[in-house]
Structure prediction request, 505 residues.
Amino acid sequence: SNDDSVVTLLDYGAGNVRSVRNAIRHLGFQIKDVQTPKDILNARRLIFPGVGAFAPAMDVLNNTGMGEALCTYIQNDRPFLGICLGLQLLFESSEENGLVGGLDSEILDDIGNRHVYFVHSYRAMPSKENKDWISSTCNYGDEFIASVRKGKVHAVQFHPEKSGDVGLSVLRRFLLPKSSLTEKRTERKASKLAKRVIACLDVRTNDEGDLVVTKGDQYDVREHAEKNEVRNLGKPVELAAQYYRDGADEVSFLNITGFSDFPLGDLPMLQVLRSASENVFVPLTVGGGIRDFTDSNDRYYSSLEVASEYFRSGADKISIGSDAVHAAEEYLKTKVKTGKSSIEQISRVYGNQAVVVSIDPRRMYLNDPSDVEFKSIRLTKQGPNGEEYAWYQCTINGGREGRPIGAYELAKAVEDLGAGEILLNCIDCDGQGKGFDVDLIKMISDAVSIPVIASSGAGAVEHFTDVFSKTNASAALAAGIFHRKEVPIRSVKEHLLKEGIEVRI
Ligand code: 1PR
Prediction:
């Protein structure tokens, strides 16, 4: 192999580096993995994708001598690209070493005013000392550093491997010699945080034993014709690739029978992730069955082990449903964070941003809010018997069992425990195509400071504008309308744009 086609990758073994690998291969390059510090010093170009939390990453680098090699490599101004935590780690050492100079970064030349994908719990702030090597910043709350550059050393806080075409072009500009790239440079303009449109694939094995994308009506996924089959709307890997091409900002896989089948026994789901991540360069979330588990041979698996397997297979975030309800109930009862819940364990190692909690609430109508101890709301549309209020009861096991906790109480509790995002379904609206439950979504998105994904009920482009204009939802998710090809993702985006809502096109 010709050396120019080889990229050295520093993977210290935490989180999903599969996507970076897939993106590099997709651009026609081969990967050489760093085994020893010497591999770093001998690299022609080095990519350091940082995923996971800061402290464990630093430990690994320091204990293996990689940290020192990395410092030398960077000080010698060798071609380097740090991603996400790869920027923050560089940042720490850079402060000490006083990186200066370099105001622009040609690897960002194709971005223009398009959006890139940020997912992180910590950030680096601009200061007098570092202002000279900042090549772009991001405005979200305060201004923070989006990328830095000095000489041949680049680092980006966002994930180019998860930012669609625009992200791939950042990688391409780093990897290819300048002469082979078009000189054209798009003018960079400020963009705002975009609302996300997410395609969701509910996956399960059908009665023939095939893994299929299915879709329920109020969580019932079986046909009501004589054969009572599991509805089959397509193949998971193919549909995910199609939604990526259509412009989905993220793709979610929910293993909807994960509560009863152990997901590490369900290897096809891991294979789905591995294959999907070869062609999908936006974030992938996977949920279903994430909990502590003892198998029939008495082998114990922690929820962290289950999640780790998902991350290794290509997931960027994991989503917890039933187990989050148990954890929240326990936490509200004892008021103690044990550190042992799945939410706490996984967020400690992979960061809060990698932990989504999926809530499956059912509307419970009330005449009088004081009838229940849970937070209720006054409905914009009365219940079937003229009820003016409702509370939203959390369920587990795919809606099969109601629990004594409301969606509001659950959302607040899981935010406290370290969840980084909430996927808010509504069983009553699921598959109905009559619009999102705006009352519910407003209540939850006003109550927490983590992003809320509105889900269940999308039937037309207007429903997306409705939920984004009336609530603080950061993203909207739909399944049925995309699977049945009733409304393409592109139409949703175009409509939102027309209505003045910022989206990634
Ligand atoms: O409890 O941790 O094992 O996770 C199980 C996961 O599977 C949960 O996230 C739960 O929401 C999901 N799930 C379980 N059973 C079903 C089912 O449908 N029988 N699917 C199910 C939930 C809801 C959304 C759906 C939206 C949008 N699906 O994912 O995609 O409602 O649909 P629409 O646009 O067609 O209205 P655990």
